[in-house]
Design brief:
Strand order of the largest sheet: 5-4-1-2-3-6
Number of domains: 2
CATH topology of the largest domain: Nucleotidyltransferase, domain 5
CATH architecture of the largest domain: 2-Layer Sandwich
Mean pLDDT: 81
Low-confidence stretches: 191-209
Number of helices: 16
Radius of gyration: 25 Å
Length: about 375
């Protein structure tokens, strides 16, 4: 019952609901509560997935292809919401007013603020949730990431119904959104320690823990790190990797110029290549550490989804060989050695370059930061 509080006065002229001379002046001059310049800057600063950032930008422009927008563009004749039957399906309806949206927001917004949360101007609503919504939400930690993830998953859920293409993840909107936030935090290396140590199946695609890695070090496993990078100027990609024993001693390094490809394909190439080297060296117990969580997830799925990259099929095949291997995610900051090896490749040769010893330009003490 703690959400039921006494009525309080607030100023509607500012996002924080506090009176300022500036906000009064803007109202007097006819300015909106959230001017577009601040809104676009707030969306630009969003630290979640790029596709979510673009979705929020298109939503505020009113360019998301909902049924009402498709009617406006003469691509459809019916603007109804297929999910709930509402007469007009615009982006505001999809992410706020549709029953599945209201159900999701009701679980994370304080009950006393839910009505205002659902009735605010749309642009003001997005700006507030990406900048300062602590007063409304039950848990303000990483709210901007969770807000974007919920909006994105509401849109995905709507598309799954419209196009009769059920999502692989059958969790609720909130469950899928929280898993997405966890993956972002792991990728940023800013996850809470308990999240790193207690990574769950489905949340990260693997069951790696720091304790598990320390155990492997004690038992004499080999460790392989892999990374890749794409060059902005021409779209070409390189990959690199390093194999070290349980004491951290260099066993083999490798780098390769791949050519023009996607970032995910380059990451998969790097992982496949370093495992191929390990196999040829006769290593039979190895832990592969990657900072690309998507490759880790695909490596640990029981079956690859339809349309998977060809290189992922080769990668999965080498994982199935008769040897002890584990694929884990690692913080990007602890994967710098593989990253710097990837940068050594150039387009002068398409053959992999092997390093039996660390390159002369590398100061190995700079990489004394634990596994990786």
């Amino acid at each position: 019952m703690e959400d039921f509080v006494a009525d309080t006065d607030y100023w509607t002229g500012s996002v924080q609901w506090e009176f300022t001379v500036k906000s009064a002046y803007e109202l007097r001059c006819g300015a909106t509560v959230c001017d577009d310049g601040k809104l676009w800057q707030t969306i630009h600063n969003y630290k979640g997935l790029q596709r979510i950032k673009i979705f929020l930008w298109l939503a505020c422009l009113g360019r998301v292809l909902t049924n009402s927008e498709r009617v406006r563009r003469h691509l459809a004749e019916n603007a109804n919401c297929i999910v709930c039957g509402a007469l007009v399906e615009d982006v505001n309806h999809v992410v706020r007013w549709c029953p599945q949206a209201i159900g999701a927001w009701s679980s994370v917004i304080k009950l006393s603020f839910l009505s205002r949360f659902l009735s605010m101007d749309f642009k003001e609503w997005v700006h507030m949730n990406l900048s300062d919504a602590a007063r409304m939400v039950s848990n303000p930690d990483n709210w901007d990431l969770l807000f974007g993830a919920i909006c994105w998953n509401l849109w995905l859920g709507r598309n799954a119904v419209v196009f009769d293409n059920p999502l692989e993840d059958r969790g609720t909107v909130l469950e899928r959104s929280r898993r997405l936030v966890e993956r972002c935090l792991m990728a940023f290396g800013t996850a809470a320690p308990e999240l790193v140590v207690q990574m769950r199946n489905g949340a990260t695609g693997c069951t790696a823990t720091e304790l598990k890695l320390q155990q492997c070090m004690a038992e004499g496993w080999f460790f392989a790190n892999s990374d890749a990078g794409c060059r902005i100027e021409d779209g070409s990609a390189t990959c690199g990797g390093v194999i070290r024993n349980h004491e951290g001693r260099w066993v083999r390094g490798i780098t390769k110029f791949i050519g023009v490809c996607s970032a995910l394909e380059a990451e998969a190439w790097g992982a496949y290549m370093i495992l191929l080297v390990a196999r040829n060296l006769g290593i039979n117990r190895i832990v592969l550490l990657l900072d690309c969580m998507e490759v880790v997830r695909l490596a640990n799925l029981e079956y690859l989804p339809p349309g998977a990259l060809t290189i992922m099929m080769y990668f999965r095949e080498i994982l199935s060989y008769d040897w002890c291997i584990e694929v884990h995610h690692i913080d990007r900051k602890r994967n710098r050695l593989a990253h710097d090896l990837a940068k050594l490749a150039d387009g002068s040769s398409l053959c992999p370059i092997h390093f039996p010893h660390p390159p002369d330009s590398f100061v190995m003490s700079d990489y004394a930061n634990g596994i990786g």
